[in-house]
Design a protein that fits this description.
Layout: H1 13-37
């Protein structure tokens, strides 16, 4: 398990809060690095192929008058 530094006796509440946020951010970054390693390519986006060429070329047919 990871070692967490013991809070110092002279640590102010602001310092303790900053330390907790920093530790949480490190855990979040480590979790994101682990999940991104096994995915497809380097694209972390949840939406794939939203902008790009259409699957098939669209054709226009003039409506015949009649």
């Amino acid at each position: 398990m990871t070692e967490t530094p013991e809070p110092e006796a002279s640590e102010t509440p602001e310092d303790e809060l900053k330390r907790k946020f920093r530790e949480a951010l490190e855990r979040k970054r480590a979790r994101q690095a682990d999940s991104g390693a096994g995915g497809k390519g380097g694209d972390a986006s949840k939406i794939h192929g939203a902008h790009g060429p259409a699957a098939s070329k669209r054709s226009f047919r003039r409506k015949s008058g009649g």
